[in-house]
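As a warm-up, study this chain.
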Amino acid sequence: LKFTKESFKMYPAIDLGCAVIAPIGMSMTPVAFPTDDSRTEFRVDCTKIMGKVMYFVFVLDPNMSEENKKKNFDKLEKENGVLSEWFHDVSWEGNYPVGSTGEPDINPK
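Now compare it with the structure written out below.
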């Protein structure tokens, strides 16, 4: 990811076996942003690649409740036509503490 005053770009990594490269920067467009850095709301961005729109969902709490996920996906569908079926859920251990693998907890509780 790269943030500038003009844009937010994502650089997807491509594993070539002998090296990992990130040859292209994709300009991201915001779709939804959590209120007051809420841990119960999605941040959603999208980009257009080869004629297709790709959506990315980010959350501050990797163990968001199923109820909150459903509420957020219902809102995305109603307001933006984005369906939950388009996404792959990344599972985290139920007791996973944010920051335990070295990632920054940018919004500590």
